Design the sequence.
């Protein structure tokens, strides 16, 4: 069997009523004739939407097929034992040209109870934001289910939600149960559990070209919502050139940020997991035992668990996210 290598995939594009053009104009990903591209799924093991390899001898194979064949060599022993044949992380770029629906995702326990796979915890890394761009995460004051339903029925739900102004580099952790929505003028990278379960609770009175409003999931969402309020909804971190900085450390993924202008060497001998790089700015050369891969902004690359040592040379600067299993 040929040895595993850094894997690149063909993006899966999603047309969305709230999408725009930045996935092409800012990230250089060609979504063809789509009018409003809202999402590019760059690494996905979601059933029916599995990423396909575009480089090397595994070209044309989808991600879950590779998991089935290479098992712990690809995922890492603990990760494979936990998730088996499903790749556990979904990585997307999202372009919000309008407000997304206000939504919530179930946790693992509720998803299991409803027999819909796993829950959905996610995080956002803001790649670009227009001036005054904002998003919604959590509640702005303590409410109970009855108060929430009243505001929802009166079409005043945004009045009790927490709005945050955003800029490039901001990070938001969105655990399952947290009500959230992106606002217009935001381009971001999203890292999440492999799940496509979303409960839409408020859609700003929008209708499609046929005059129809999108389905809401009021009852399904109610049991999923975390009504608590928190001291902060934004993750703070400090950027240091040529250093690795942790952004999010949760049970489903660890995400770090790197910005560098000199060669760095990575040793993952201690890690029992695959690693994903999401290039957010610049470009670099990735050298490993049997070859070299070019990295550029807008790309994601999957390093199999058996790849332990590699070198990254920025050309001339590069910023990227580093993601792996805890």
Sequence:
């Amino acid at each position: 069997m040929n040895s595993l290598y850094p894997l690149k995939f063909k993006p899966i594009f999603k047309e969305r009523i709230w999408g725009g053009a930045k996935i092409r104009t800012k990230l250089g990903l060609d979504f063809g004739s789509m009018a409003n591209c809202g999402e590019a799924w760059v690494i996905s093991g979601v059933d029916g939407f599995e990423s396909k390899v575009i480089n090397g001898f595994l070209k044309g194979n989808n991600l879950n097929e590779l998991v089935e064949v290479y098992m712990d060599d690809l995922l890492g022993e603990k990760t494979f034992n936990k998730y088996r044949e499903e790749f556990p992380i979904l990585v997307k770029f999202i372009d919000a040209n309008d407000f997304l629906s206000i939504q919530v995702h179930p946790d693992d326990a509720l998803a299991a109870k409803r027999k819909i796979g796993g829950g959905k915890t996610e995080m956002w890394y803001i790649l670009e934001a227009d001036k005054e761009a904002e998003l919604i995460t959590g509640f702005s004051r303590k409410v109970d289910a009855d108060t929430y339903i009243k505001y929802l029925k009166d079409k005043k739900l945004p009045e009790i939600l927490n709005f945050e102004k955003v800029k490039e580099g901001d990070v938001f952790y969105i655990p399952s149960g947290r009500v959230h929505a992106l606002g217009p003028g935001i381009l971001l990278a999203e890292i999440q559990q492999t799940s496509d379960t979303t409960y839409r609770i408020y859609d700003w009175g929008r209708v499609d070209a046929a005059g129809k409003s999108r389905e809401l999931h009021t009852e399904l969402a109610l049991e999923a919502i975390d009504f608590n309020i928190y001291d902060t909804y934004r993750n703070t971190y400090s950027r240091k050139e040529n250093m690795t900085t942790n952004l999010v450390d949760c049970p489903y993924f660890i995400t770090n940020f790197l910005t560098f202008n000199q060669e760095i060497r990575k040793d993952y001998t201690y890690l029992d997991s695959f690693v994903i790089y999401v290039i957010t700015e610049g470009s670099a050369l990735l050298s490993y035992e049997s070859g070299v891969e070019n990295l550029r902004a807008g790309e994601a690359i999957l390093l199999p668990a058996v790849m332990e040592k590699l070198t990254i040379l920025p050309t001339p600067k590069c910023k990227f996210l580093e993601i792996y299993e805890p």
Notes: The first strand starts at residue 7 and ends at 10.
